[in-house]
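User: Study the shape:
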Amino acid sequence: MAALASLAALAMQACRPRGEIVIGFVASMSGMDYMLGVEGRNAAMLFVDRLNGEGGIGGRTLRLEVRDLASDDSRAPEVAAGLAAAGVEAVVGFYSSSSALAAIPVLEEAGVPIISPTSTSDALSGKADCFYRTIMSTARDPEALAASMRQAGHRRVLFIAAAYNVPYYQTYLQGLARLVDIAGTFFYQKLDDLDYGAIAELGAGDGYDSVMIVAGSLDTGTIAQELALRGLLAPLYLSGWAGNDDVITYGGAAVEGATMVHQVDPALVRDLPLSAAYRAAFGEEPGYGAIETWDSMLFLVEALRASGPVPGRLAAAIGAVRSFTGTAGTIGIDEYGDASRPLYMKRIIDGAFVVTGAVN
């Protein structure tokens, strides 16, 4: 599949309008996990429109080839092959770790680099491949969360996770298990799979004193509501995946006080022209999905400017970038394409995310 895609990509590049740069964009924009992908797509399209309006890259315009995974990460290899066959020079996207891991072999064979805004599993770290990311691994998140748990006197944690994003939840589960007691684990493919009766039975007496949810924002908010409706009111800890306002919309009072570790402080980018344009276009503040997408696009632009107009140089130029200016400051990129950037503690207070401090 990848070899055929590579041959097709060469043919497509030969037929491409002179000066056009075609970039793939992949995310789930429909299905149960659509929120992050829609926000990312909106941010990417806005970024490209503004960039092209300013003359593009040395007079060359960008064009996005957008693909929807439809909340089915098993489609990632097929979608990746299709983009390679369409002659894209790079792909921005694969917002879940499981989709990124599935796509890498195809795009590695085709010689097409991937830049992911939000795939954070530690399983993606330290590998010399075509995969780059402008967000850090979540490897440090469990350490910071466990420290917060211990400070609050929480030692026995109930762990609930979306089973379809295995590499992502494993980073949290394995990290927490080294530092606190995991009182029980519950995984689901669909929200209806969760056995709240079993959770309540486990919670009787001293079963658990806090709950860690590793899921997208809609699912996390819904799970929190279902726990609250059953009187299961243990303090909540959330993964960064749930870090946009949808978790508050769907969780309401049930997520009040929840704690998470995150890599974006929206206050630092609120005054950017991109943020103002996003508010004007979509009537809301850009969430972390939009901000992380802009960081990936800025990384790509850095490499495009370095590679120049000669075909075939972009992959090498991306691999040579060691730092670039992101939306909120400098982001480092190591030789394996892994990012380094600030990390923040956040809580949901009065129906809004509040940064409570930086993680050392």
Summary: The chain is about 40% helix and 20% strand.
